[in-house]
Write a structure and sequence with these properties.
- This protein is mostly beta strands.
- The chain is built from no helices and 43 strands.
- The strands form 11 sheets. Strands 1-2-3-4-5 form a 5-stranded antiparallel beta sheet, with no helix packed on it. It has a 4-stranded antiparallel beta sheet with strand order 6-7-8-9, with no helix packed on it. The chain has a 4-stranded antiparallel beta sheet with strand order 10-11-12-13, with no helix packed on it.
- Strand 22 and strand 23 form a beta hairpin.
- It starts with a strand and ends in a 9-residue tail after the last strand.
Length: 533
């Protein structure tokens, strides 16, 4: 999770200056982006070219560790486990008379999974003469992929089809430069597929999406040539642009049924690519099937039904979903009680499904007139599709579904945007408990433990914690407006809530996350001032 914080001025009175001149950086406004990791809140102090890792003791006291970053950080990302922060720096090319030394592009990793934060830096100078400004992380935590996003301008001449694959399990990152074959397109999105059982063995694919084709690159073997899939015939006047990509491994015992599903921008067709055995160097080849679903789909997902694997497509405007058999392209249309635009899968145990071999899907983001959510029991989708839906009455439109930790598999948190209410959804009981908020623009932060949700309104000093199991709410009144909230593990084995404030040098209040009490809060100021807290 990332928060941006800015302070008008540093609290100069809190810093005892030593002898000598004061570096210019300490006279600039304090500006930082904040990231929550497992056991640390990391402040990226942009002007000072450093990160400050805040860790908490058992009693809520904060300690700070400062680490210098590379020059010109152009991209940042937190891994899916919430344990590491990655910072990609462009470096510096020294010119004649330059007082700053030459510096190669680098990838810095801040590890906040232990009691004390640590860092390591991967030198990219061996594979990059010009910097790249895009960073994507593999959900398994093994790879980072660098690319030219174009956001920061880049070099004078850039090859947008050049990628750098970094193996994070190697001590030096073992960066490998890959130049994708292009038919005129450039990468627009990178999708990491889960581990797939392919004819050549288990592997991880990176799917590189351009405006007119897909490139499939084996991350386990980045030296192998990628496979490019043209999304239209070479003679076609227009090419459909991908809008969403989903992946399914199929039967784990088979090596010929892994599939990729696509929907396209302003197109009524969906496509499935089956990765079948081939005599080529990669050992597989993608075989496409295209199906018209009668309207432009808003979301797709591979689902397991009582009739087998299907690609489900939600079709707004028709109040329906279409199930596509990826092998035969035959379709089944299912009428929906509302014009839902989004779909999230919940496991059978999450939804107390009676059919262990089939999925249950949560449908949400309905139109204003027919809001709420619906459970779609896919164990009845083929035989009795009209009996497969159960709605939960919610008067507001659900705009996002927040996952709860893996330790809590029976709950979801539903956000309604600026409607002044959010819901805790019980997947087993099929109930939705409303939680009303005094403000209409609140931020929700689900605890990594899956036991509570924190609520705050940026710019206000109130903070609330809601127990997900009991729905009990406790409101806390802090001393300054809250700009960010992070729950981390502390040195005593417990949990600490760190609420950040955009005051002089940036400040924070800490509370016991399990039993928060304002009387035992601790307040810290000038977090970006040298020598604090």
């Amino acid at each position: 999770m990332k928060m941006s914080l800015t302070s008008a001025a540093l609290a100069l009175g809190t810093l005892a200056l030593g002898c000598g001149g004061r570096p210019d950086v300490w006279s600039r406004p304090a500006s930082a982006n904040a990231y929550g990791l497992s056991n640390a809140v990391v402040l990226h102090d942009v002007n000072a070219q450093r990160v400050v890792a805040l860790t908490a003791s058992g009693d809520g006291a904060l300690s700070a560790s400062s680490f210098g970053t590379g020059t010109d950080v152009v991209a940042t990302a937190v891994d899916s486990a919430g344990a590491r922060l990655f910072l990609l720096s462009a470096g510096h090319r020294a010119m004649l008379g330059d007082t700053q030394k030459n510096e190669a592009p680098a990838l810095m990793v801040v590890d906040g999974s232990a009691a004390a934060a640590t860092t390591r830096t991967i030198d990219l100078g061996g594979v990059l003469s010009d910097p790249l400004d895009g960073l994507a992380l593999d959900p398994t935590g093994r790879w980072a992929v660098l690319y030219a996003s174009g956001v920061h301008g880049g070099a004078f001449v850039t090859n947008p089809n050049e990628l750098v694959v970094v193996d994070l399990t190697a001590a030096d990152g073992a960066p490998v430069s890959v130049s994708l074959h292009s038919f005129g397109g450039r990468p627009e999105k990178l999708v990491f597929a889960p581990e797939l059982s392919l004819p050549g063995g288990k592997t991880h694919l990176l799917i590189v999406e351009s405006e007119q084709d897909l490139s499939l690159l084996e991350l386990d073997h980045p030296d192998r040539a990628e496979i490019t899939v043209r999304l239209a015939d070479a003679a076609a006047a227009t090419t459909p642009q991908p809008a969403e990509i989903v992946v399914d491994d199929g039967d784990p015992a088979r090596t010929d049924d892994a599939r990729i599903g696509l929907r396209f921008v302003n197109d009524t067709s969906v496509m499935t690519l089956q990765l079948e055995p081939s005599s080529g160097a990669n050992g597989y080849t993608p075989t496409p099937n295209v199906t018209d679903v009668g309207g432009v789909p808003s979301a797709i997902a591979f689902v397991r039904t009582d009739g087998g694997l299907r690609l489900a497509a939600l079709v707004p405007g028709h109040d329906s979903a279409v199930l596509v058999d990826p092998a035969t392209t035959l379709t089944t249309t299912v009428a929906l009680p509302a014009d839902y635009r989004s779909i999230s899968l919940v496991t059978p145990s999450d939804a107390a499904s009676t059919t262990s071999s089939a999925d249950t899907a949560l449908l949400w983001n309905g139109d204003a007139g027919q809001a709420g959510v619906a459970f779609w029991e896919l164990g009845q989708a083929a035989g009795r599709p009209f009996r497969s839906l159960e709605t939960v009455a919610i008067t507001e439109r659900v705009t996002s579904v927040l996952d709860v930790a893996k330790t809590n598999t029976t709950s979801k948190v539903l956000s309604t945007g600026a409607a002044g209410v959010f819901y805790v959804l019980d997947l087993a009981q099929r109930t939705a408990t409303p939680l009303l908020t005094a403000a209409t623009n609140v931020s929700l932060v689900v605890s990594p433990t899956g036991t509570r949700v924190w609520t705050f309104a940026p710019g206000q000093s109130d903070l609330a914690t809601t127990d997900i199991a009991t729905k009990h709410v406790r409101t806390l009144h802090l001393d300054a407006a809250v700009t960010g909230v992070f729950e981390i593990g502390n040195g005593g084995g417990g949990r600490t809530l760190v609420a950040l404030h955009a005051l002089g040098g940036l400040g924070a209040t800490t509370l016991d996350a399990t039993n928060p009490d304002e009387d035992h809060r601790k307040i810290f100021g000038a977090l970006l001032t040298e020598g604090t807290p």
